[in-house]
Each structure stands twice: as structure tokens, then as C-alpha cells.
Amino acid sequence: MPAHDDVKTRKAAFLMAFGETARARRTALGLTQRQLDARMGYRGKFSGGVERGTRNLTLDNLYLLAAALETDPYDLLKGTQQPPPA
Amino acid sequence: MPAHDDVKTRKAAFLMAFGETARARRTALGLTQRQLDARMGYRGKFSGGVERGTRNLTLDNLYLLAAALETDPYDLLKGTQQPPPA
């Protein structure tokens, strides 16, 4: 495993990249964050944190988010690959 | 979004498929669950739940698990796609 700080930085970059992919998918569907949250059964304040890369969601919610975005978790993680650590 | 029960069943199948993918990757690396847990900084009882599909891990831990398995989260989710809901 790479050095601790490197993993921390790469993990934050992973969450940011995931957020950007989720945002792109949401806007492609023409949904607002509030509409997406409602699809997942949330009354707001869910997808905002995901898209900012600040919400550390669980696999359960990753699955629900993907379903609400009419896709699957594998597809949502497509934009998150990183070059292997040095 | 598909009916509630259908999402619940599909979500459980997703966690099971993810667990199987993680197990296959671990055994391909010749690691025990204890060795994998240690790579992630856990003293056991982490990867067992993941592989049984009973641990609802966060994206942070998904990232750490992938790094410990010398891959990335996108690759680990490869075997989890499902046919679209009926």
C-alpha cells in the first residue's frame, strides 16, 4: 500500500472524481439536486455533498444513487480511475 | 425507480456480487482475510463481512479495500452489473 498521506490525497481525489461523474449524469438527465434527492427518498441535502466530494456514502446509497440516476454503481465509478501510485 | 421491494432485493444482490468479486481478487493475490485486513490497518473482522455481502462499507473504505487489493474501486465493481429492472 502507498504511503499514508498519498492514500489520503488519492482517496479525496477519488471522492471528487466520483462527485463530478454523478453531477454530469444528473445534469444529463435534466434533474435538479432536489429532484434527484426525492427520487432516492431524501428531502434534499444528499446529492449536494456527493457532488462536492464531501459525503462518504455507503455502498447501499451508492446503489440507490445509481438507480435514481438510471444507471449502475459500476458505471458511476467509470470516471474515477487513477494512475497507479508511484 | 423500480418498486421498493425490487430495489431491496437488487441492492442485496449487488452487495453479494461485490463481496464475491473482492474474495476472488483476494484469493488471486494469495492473501488471507486477516492479511488483507492488516493491509487496510484493521485487526481482522473487516473483509469477512464484505465478502459475505453483509458489510455496507463507505466509499472511503471501498477505496482503501481496492488499494489493499492492488486495484481500484471501478475494477472491484466490475462483476456487479445487473440487467436493468423489468
From TrEMBL, chains A, B:
Every HTH cro/C1-type domain range: 23-76
Which InterPro entries does this one have?
A: Cro/C1-type_HTH, Lambda_DNA-bd_dom_sf
Per its UniProt entry, which superkingdom is the organism in? Bacteria
**Annotated Gene Ontology MF terms?**
DNA binding
User: Which SMART domains does the entry link to?
Assistant: HTH_XRE
Q: Which Pfam families match?
A: HTH_3
The record's section on Gene3D superfamilies has: lambda repressor-like DNA-binding domains (1.10.260.40)
Q: What is this protein called?
A: Helix-turn-helix domain-containing protein
